[in-house]
Amino acid sequence: MTTDNSSFTELFADVPLMAILRGMGVERSLAVATTAWDLGITAVEVPVQTRTDVEALRVLAEAAAARGLQVGAGTVVSLEHVRQAKDAGAAFTVSPGFDAEIVRASHEAGMPALPGVSTASEVQAASKEGLTWLKAFPASLLSTGWFPAMRGPFPGVNFVATGGMDAGTAPAFLDAGVRVVAVGSALEDPAQLPALAKLLA
Q: Of 29, 71, 79, 193, which has the maximum CB count within 10 A?
């Protein structure tokens, strides 16, 4: 069974940013998600590490649906997380690393998976599973040079740069060939919002 995740092409469309709302609680998550949506960011991820996170995911999934958008579950590192994500209304899952079992379980539950990679071996293993969208993590430590290096042997892979990204670093990663940059706390920084909006223009 191949676990095709090409639907991320449609999810991200031509929007080069994704929002990650980690540990913000329900109300703050909704407020920051609204900021992201109003800016034009279509993909929002809520890491599910606590019961409150799962509740925030549920609330955001409903709010997103009202806008015709989708929300995903992040930090999915167990089969239980896959189940919780599905129950809360997540449309996709994101993981810090590559675990074929979790990728397959997510796929079977109707949620395309975006696993994390940081080595050529992981990119190759993920490609073998049929995945064409991968999360590069931690992107700030991998640096911009990592992406052109990977494009040589893996020209069909699209990367989402995650970890340590903000309005200041995003342009260099996008210039390096990254399709999407994931930002978190930058969305709560009024000083960064104009720069983020410019990236989306």
A: 71
